[in-house]
Amino acid sequence: MESKRTKIMVFGTFDGLHEGHMDFFRQAKALAESPSLTVSIARDVNVIRIKGVRPLLKEEERHDLIEKSGLADRVVLGEENDYISHIAREDPDIIALGYDQSDYVEGLEEKLRANSIKAEIVRLKPYKENIFKNSLLRKQTGI
Q1: What separation in angstroms does the CA of 103 have from each of 2, 44, 100, 106?
Q2: Are the C-beta atoms of 18 and 137 separated by less than 8 Å?
Q3: What CA–CA distance (Å, rounded) separates 139 from 20?
Q4: Full DSSP string of 65-115
Q5: What does the pLDDT look like over 114-124, one tens digit per residue?
Q6: What pTM, to 2 d.p., does this model score?
Q7: What is the separation of C-alpha 89 from the centre of its chain, rounded to a whole number of angstroms?
Q8: pLDDT band at residue 24, thresholds of 50, 70 and 90?
């Protein structure tokens, strides 16, 4: 008899993969004995709105990069407007947030409860945040 897998959902731009992302996925998977990791890729329009810059890779390219990496069990594109319905469709047991994800999560717990979504919210720890952060890596490379 198979044990039920714990559905864990993470969100991000993932504009290229670096060690910080790898650690983010490892930490998320470590939250359960039998994890199933869903990675939600931010839509280009939302990246521009939130970060003020266009991602280097288009949303489909970022989706394919994560999918081909084998680091996730499921990779989906996020919604452009209604992230709560997006979360409801995936029905995660746990939502794992990065240490620096703040804009996205303001009032998240209340919105989840208002929509009868029972996912636990867990904040993950940074991994060499002064080195492995896309905005810093962009500055270092001049991109």
Answers
A1: 38, 16, 9, 6
A2: yes
A3: 16
A4: HHHHHT--SEEEE--SS-HHHHHHHH--SEEEE-TT--TTTTTHHHHHHHT
A5: 999 999 999 99
A6: 0.85
A7: 15
A8: very high
Euclidean distance between CA atoms 123 and 73, whole angstroms: 20
Residue type, 112: L
- Residue (of 89, 70, 92, 71) closest to 79 by Cα position: 89
Return all residues near 2 (Cβ < 8 A) that are at least 6 apart: none
Q: Which two tokens stand for residue 79?
A: 């919604």
* Residue 138: per-residue pLDDT: 43
Query: Coil, helix or strand for 64?
Result: helix
* Distance in angstroms (rounded) separating the CA atoms of residues 30 and 46: 28
Q: State the sign of the Cα–Cα–Cα–Cα dihedral 117, 61, 58, 131.
A: positive
The SS3 of residue 38 is strand
Give the model confidence (pLDDT) of 49-86 as tens digits: 988 999 999 999 999 999 999 999 999 999 998 889 99
Answer yes or no: are the C-beta atoms of 76 and 40 closer than 8 Å: yes
* CB-based burial label for 13 (10 Å; 0-12, 13-18, 19+): buried
